[in-house]
DNA sequence: GCAAAATAGAAGTCATCACTCCGCTTGTCA
DNA sequence: TGACAAGCGGAGTGATGACTTCTATTTTGC
């Protein structure tokens, strides 16, 4: 129960950071050794922090969710209710430029993305609920929408953007989704 | 150049069919042996028809694209121009009930989904182009849309639906996308 | 400064999996 | 109906990669 040493904390963070980059770039098939190397860390260390590859992947995923939840919360409190939801979606989807492969990453690791029992998932759901409610109250989002749809659309839009060739195409896809959210 | 034996043709079809089902259900990580078993075929046979796992996966994918292209073409000629595009999207996306994991399947196999050089891809693009043009002419789709966006939205919507818990949620997601396609 | 905690990373274990090889079976065509 | 090539099944092979273990070394906290 004693708090971990400073270098342990540092290494854990470095592993997560490197893992995200490598996994997103090369997919879940990359070896743990590769990830350890990218993090500048021995294999033993990696496995002490994350006893299985799956837990490492889940760690990366949950870190991402936490960042999303933080963004959503910030926008929900600071932003204009009428535009906050759209801004969030835009931000979230642009976040990892090269590849938003995080969900398919998880899926191919055999993790069920819809398993929303964890704490980061709960936090994101809650933040999205607030964002959505405010948008609906100010007429910026269709009334029948609920949080699960929002999450789905988030993942889906991110997927859709992978197919966009240029910036114009990207912005058109985004425009379609945003218009759809509004209509109703 | 002699035509293949009857049993060979039959087996090839059975492999493709079983592979689609197993791959969609369990992801690309399933072993080829599992696929062979599902097809009721020996491993040797599987590998004679598809010399590598990647070629098998690509085969499944292209078969799917061909079916999509056929559907699109049929709707483009037979259907009401104003509703054909929406109908197509609805159909395409509902096709594989459990999981429309085909694209992430390919992606995790290291195949670039956006590589549109193959014949089935070309056929689909062409059919979609017709569908889109007719929809735009009858005011059922925003004018600025182009085919790549449509393909992206197809994949994205399919992804989004994976998150929908129940039928109501599914239909709301679909409604968002369809409204977005129209708006403009 | 020292004990405890943590690390690097080499070497090894074990399971898995894509793919090969080859003896047997079956479709085809005379 | 018989011969024979095309096709088949499935045991076997080699590579890979997740995870363990261990020793010598470094880092941290008090």
TrEMBL record, chains A, B:
The keyword Transport does not apply. Keywords: DNA-binding, Transcription, Transcription regulation. The keyword Cell inner membrane does not apply. It comes from the Bacteria. Residues 9-68 form the HTH tetR-type domain. InterPro entries: Homeodomain-like_sf (IPR009057), HTH-type_TetR-like_transc_reg (IPR050109), HTH_TetR (IPR001647), Tet_transcr_reg_TetR-rel_C_sf (IPR036271), TetR_SbtR-like_C (IPR049445). Residues 31-50 bind DNA. Transmembrane segments: none annotated. PROSITE patterns: HTH_TETR_2 (PS50977). Coiled coil: none annotated. GO terms for molecular function: DNA-binding transcription factor activity; transcription cis-regulatory region binding. It holds the Pfam family TetR_N. PANTHER family: HTH-TYPE TRANSCRIPTIONAL REGULATOR BETI, HTH-TYPE TRANSCRIPTIONAL REGULATOR RUTR. This is TetR family transcriptional regulator. It comes from Paractinoplanes tereljensis.
